[in-house]
## 1
Amino acid sequence: MQLAVWRLVGAPLPRDLPAARALLARAAAIGHVDAALMQVALTANGSGAAAPDWPAALALLRVAAAGDPVAAAQLALVEAMALDDAGRPARAPFGELLSDAPRVVRFRGFLSAAECAHVAGVAAPLLAPARVIDPASGRWVTHPVRTADDAAIGPANEDLVIRAINARIAAASGTDIAAGEPLTVLRYRPGQQYRAHVDTIAGAANQRVMTMLVYLNAGYRGGETHFPAPGLTVVPAPGDALLFRNTLPDGRPDPLSRHAGQPVLAGAKWLATRWIRAAPFDPWALSG
């Protein structure tokens, strides 16, 4: 298992995803529970293999669920979803148009309460002070524009529940699941906010063309999502999702997509974000 992790992270050994997959399979075969769950995730998203394989991942999860309550809970959530044989939603989610410029669509009840809790639970141990991409260097840095804690659920942690949710986001947005960045969870506590900004990346060859926000909880005040240009303010409701375009038809950033996460006044706001690129990209370039 340790060798597999080193091969996934790329330190102290070079990153080698096929080798990591083989090591995880060996560790799972001798009873390492975490290796079995990671093997499921990588099988589903195709890391280190020719292509994603949902049926094989589901079969592995069923084996793991026989002796592991964590795997059993994941399997129960997946089996409660209406999915096709590839793990995609049986029907595309339906949304309501809130704005034409920028295009903003709300999907009510996009996630169930159990799915929201699962997303937050996966991200919670990974939370760290949030960062933004510095336009000058292209690196992730802390910045006062964004005060929160966040965690990207990278490929090694993309269990079948998260994978199915990412497929649902792809269906709602009409995009390829491979074009989405890792699902990122943010926690805003009192006084924290995300000041007005655009989600596009200056000079990016593979631009963030859309953003999906999913509100995960209740029990807080403030935290509205505000779009200044159309004068649109969306009050979060648990399980609801908000999809908006970040670019114009010619691919240039749309200044009207500027938006803000208003300060949280009381409690803690949990939010999941998936930035969707114009074309598929390698998620291992952003997360381990």
Note: The helical segments are 2-9, 17-29, 33-45, 54-65, 69-79, 113-123, 160-173.
## 2
Amino acid sequence: MKVIVNGEPREVPEGTSVAQAVATVSAAGSGVAAALNDEVVRRSAWDDTPLREADRLEVLTAVQGG
């Protein structure tokens, strides 16, 4: 099925979770947030939140700067 991850179209298998999709774009263990169709998904729900056809997932990683 096709979804949009960080503005890029991607093909993912049916049943792909938010957690699985986040893992494909970020190796960071912490400081990562995910929004599915403009709604923040709590990290505790990532494994239980499946992606659906045409969903839009934004993965944001916090960075330090100066």
Note: The chain has a mean pLDDT of 94.
